[in-house]
Design goal:
mainly alpha; Arc Repressor Mutant, subunit A; Tetracycline Repressor, domain 2; globular
């Protein structure tokens, strides 16, 4: 019975997050009411207060939920607490390629179009800072491979450009899906995206005289 109740609560929370993501993406934060979100989710209005507190906290909950899921996903194939100094360079490069594969899988399986809209809007806010353990680890890994500090300007931009290679086909559908006449990416498309992301990453390593 306890498991059934827990599953029911998790299901209600997920419904609220999904409905809120859709409506915030379509109408913006100010254009959506709590009542509208509850109607879309098919839940009682008191559930918003129970799970999140209010609309502002719900909006933040969307971002927090993404980071939580990304961290949980990354923890399945990375030991985020293991110091990178314990890897040799070859192992670091191998880990980099694994992460790139997994990042593509995660982004194309877990990030909805509505969530992309919200993330793009958030990026334009002066106070928006990405504090995601998986992304922070990725930047540290690149810094370790290049033997630079993680705050180094070149490390920050190289991390940015690699991540851009991962997400650009979804962020720019006019240059990908619409030209292909598709609604979504196929497994063959995902394979090509992975190959291109790795090609770009390897080019960065070659530039730094790293094999």
């Amino acid at each position: 019975m306890l498991n059934m109740e827990k599953n029911r609560q998790e299901n209600s929370r997920e419904k609220i997050l999904k409905a809120a993501t859709k409506l915030f993406a379509q109408k913006g934060f100010d254009g959506v009411s709590i009542r509208e979100i509850c109607k879309e989710a098919g839940v009682n209005i008191c559930m918003i207060s129970y799970y999140f507190g209010g609309k502002k906290e719900l909006y933040q909950g969307i971002l927090d939920d993404l980071i939580e899921k990304q961290t949980e996903y990354a923890s399945g194939f990375i030991n985020l607490s293991k110091p990178l100094s314990e890897y040799n360079r070859s192992e670091k490069i191998e880990l980099l390629m694994l992460i790139l594969d997994k990042f593509v899988d995660f982004f194309y399986s877990n990030i909805s179009k509505d969530l992309i809209v919200i993330l793009l809007k958030e990026q334009q806010k002066d106070n928006f800072i990405v504090n995601a353990p998986a992304i922070n680890y990725f930047r540290k890994l690149i810094a370790a491979i290049l033997e630079k500090d993680e705050t180094d300007r070149s490390v920050i931009f190289k991390t940015l450009f690699i991540i851009s290679q991962v997400n650009s086909p979804r962020i720019l559908p006019a240059f990908s899906l619409r030209l292909l006449g598709q609604e979504d990416f196929t497994q063959e498309d995902i394979k090509i995206i992975k190959e291109n992301v790795k090609f770009y990453a390897k080019a960065i390593l070659r530039e730094a005289n790293i094999d």
